[in-house]
Amino acid sequence: MAEVNQCLLPDELLYHVDYNVWLRDNGDGTYDLGMTDIAQSMAGSLLHCRAKKVGKAVKEGKSLATVESGKWVGPLKSPFACEILASNEAVEVDAALLNRSPYKQGWIVKVRPAEGADLSALVDAAAAVDGFAAYMAANEFKGCIHCEGFEG
Amino acid sequence: MEPIYADAKYQEVPYAEKKRLFDEVKADLRFETQLYGCYECGICVAACPSARFYDFSPRVFAQVVSREDVHTFYELLNDSVWDCSQCFSCTCCPRQNNPGGVITLMREVAVNNGLKSAKDALKAYSRIIYKIMSTGTQVAPDMLQPDFFPDWGPDVQQVSANLDVWRRAIPPETMHTVELAWDVSEKTRLELYLIWKLTGNLEMIENIDEGLFMILEEVMEELLEEHGYDLEEIESVVE
Q1: Which tens digit of pLDDT belongs to each residue from A57-89?
Q2: Are A85 and A32 in contact (CB under 8 A)?
Q3: Which of A143, B39, B195, B237 lies 20 to 30 angstroms, CA to CA, from B1?
Q4: pTM for this structure?
């Protein structure tokens, strides 16, 4: 598993560095998306995660879900134009799952890229390391914080 | 024009840029009713809660802006401007000066120009801005989390773990909400959204936090559309 400043980046996933999201290629033309270890650490203890409605078409860079911690709120940005196929009810009920299990149980939405969607900004873990190191430096973020019960 | 002090901060920023921002503050309609000359009596500093805790002085704002000291103005605009609690205790000034009012104008200029210092100062408050602009309430009870309030010690853990129980001890008309201080009606939210949209306040957020702007815009437009408002017409009014 790739690592940058104690932040984990599983090798089997793809990443969009600027939007700080991970993607799992399901092999059937769909992708699961979630917040990276870096994103969950920067946000702090998460309280709410509300995905947009299933069936909604979302443009590149627009919001797939709204995520809230105590004093922070931000969008989960879509790395490409897509349609939302499903959302994870478990994280809507208990958003702290995103802190405990950002990559395993903490997927937020399942999407299908729109026809002709540009996936070129996605990179694998090895290629994402430098980008995330620069992202963390630019945001003056020193390293990831893993809460009790963290399972990656 | 050379900086007054050899070790003055922000010497790398061109004078013209500092002057542009200063002129933007001065051009505000409210500016001419903020300052009427300073006695140097220090009453504003004595009344100021921020002055007790920070290296901060409302008198400095009154004097620097009156003197048109553009270099020090720029320093204040990037640093001390965020130390003010905007309580306006300083309006006890015997000359009717309003340093807090000058700071309001300066903050607006800092935000409208997307200054990095403004972004940094407001970074930790995005959910508070979100709550104010989307519901009209500011501090949400569920903000009481151990990692955001370490100064509360073990109490905050107890409160956050049993928040719904604690909230039942307050009057029922609040609806015992945990995400909001009290229940906010749809009519109130609709009025708020129209105000933020039509006054251009929503657009100010875009310069500071693009993600927050995106979320707010979606929330507001959804409710406005639901109530039959023509968003294009609203945009044309703003323009």
Answers
A1: 999 999 999 999 988 899 999 999 999 999 999
A2: no
A3: B39
A4: 0.85
